[in-house]
Design brief:
CATH superfamily of the largest domain: HAD superfamily/HAD-like
Number of domains: 2
Mean pLDDT: 90
CATH class of the largest domain: Alpha Beta
Oligomer: single chain
Radius of gyration: 20 Å
CATH topology of the largest domain: Rossmann fold
Helix content: 25-40%
Strand order of the largest sheet: 1-5-4-3-2-6-7-8
Number of strands: 8
């Protein structure tokens, strides 16, 4: 099968709307290293009592009790989680896009000619308005330059360094601290009851694998994401290595999610968690089959503690993490649970005080 040139399938308005909201690029501020979040012994301690929490508890009880008609064999206990907007903050712009923009100055140091070449010249100017006016083709040039063309090991080292140094503009914390504590507790609760938890994300597979184990407790082999090709080669000293190439192998968004689940996992999830129209097909795929199943969508309706966007239920429209009214209506019709950040979560982040 002929390889496709890498296309990140990004919406220009999505990217530029986020850029316009960023006070600056994230910068390189020293911070603590990545550490796994911890929870109390109480299941779902950061959740308020209500239908959403009860749905999770009932699902786990029914599928792990051998005397229950909905009992599921341990090998079939598969749960899939979207990442952006489901497990960590995705507004005002995807964290991986911020990483790409932040990498441009480092690329220019290695290749000074880039300082006079567009679109790198514009990104280096720091002029957010000018960056916002870059074309989709120009933005893709930035993504390709910062996500491919280096060895797999070099890329991992660069991402790891950025995750330690970069801080979100609003909370002034590393991006890996902006994990939704209630969702992390769901992952941990499922695993404690024999489930395998997978991240199924539209984000870069190699990018997420750098921190998935430390942050989510999800090993790298259980991360399914958008993936580029690699090429095997030898260094001058004869050492073998892999180079990241601009060839798209997996586009893990929308219909690509169930396709990637089949290809990479080989078992259909019986629980799936998302937050946007990009997750619809994954939840629909999970919903079909015998026995009890759990499909849940995070609704961002807390502008004070996090962000509020939809446009479902009259929330502000958003090109990033769009939760449409049609998706909300489908969820209601099919019995999928909508998780209200505002009403269902006592706290959003581990550093929040409990309500």
């Amino acid at each position: 099968m002929k390889s496709k040139h890498l296309s990140f399938d990004i919406n220009r308005r999505v990217v530029i709307s986020g850029i316009a909201l960023l006070p600056t690029l994230s910068g390189t501020l020293l911070s603590s290293a990545i550490q796994a979040q911890t929870t109390s012994n109480e299941p779902l301690a950061s959740w308020n009592d209500g239908p959403a929490k009860q749905a999770i508890l009932d699902f786990v009880r029914d599928t792990t009790d051998q005397g229950n008609a909905n009992f599921v064999r341990p090998e079939d206990r598969i749960a899939a989680f979207d990442q952006d907007g489901t497990m960590w903050v995705e507004h005002p712009i995807y964290s991986q896009v911020v990483y790409c923009l932040d990498r441009v100055p480092f690329l220019a140091e290695q290749n000074p000619k880039l300082r006079s070449v567009e679109p790198f010249k514009t990104v280096l100017s720091g002029n957010r308005q000018a960056i916002a006016e870059l074309s989709l083709h120009e933005l893709e040039k930035v993504l390709v330059a910062t996500l491919t063309g280096m060895s797999v090991d070099e890329f991992e080292a660069e991402v790891r360094k950025w995750l330690i140094e970069a801080k979100d503009a609003r909370w002034k914390r590393p991006y890996t601290e902006l994990i939704y504590q209630p969702m992390l507790e769901v992952m941990q609760y499922l695993r404690s009851n024999g489930y395998k938890t997978y991240i199924v994300t539209g984000g870069g597979q190699d990018f997420v694998r750098v921190y998935s184990d430390q942050v989510y407790g999800v090993p790298v082999e259980q991360v399914v994401g958008t993936a580029a090709g690699t090429k095997f080669g030898y260094r001058k000293d004869g050492t073998p290595f892999l180079t990241k190439e601009p060839k798209l192998l997996l586009n893990d968004d929308k219909a690509g999610k169930p396709e990637s689940i089949h290809l990479m996992i080989g078992r259909k999830p019986i629980a799936a968690f998302g937050n946007s129209v990009g997750d619809r097909e994954m939840l629909e795929y999970t919903d079909v089959g015998p026995g009890k199943r759990l499909m849940m969508l995070v609704l961002h309706d807390d502008g004070r503690r996090e962000y509020a966007y939809g446009p479902a239920q009259g929330l502000p429209d958003s090109k990033i993490g769009t939760f449409s009214q049609a998706l909300y209506d489908e969820a209601k019709k099919k019995g999928w649970a909508a998780i209200s950040m505002k009403n269902d979560w006592k706290r959003i982040f581990a550093f929040d005080e409990k309500a």
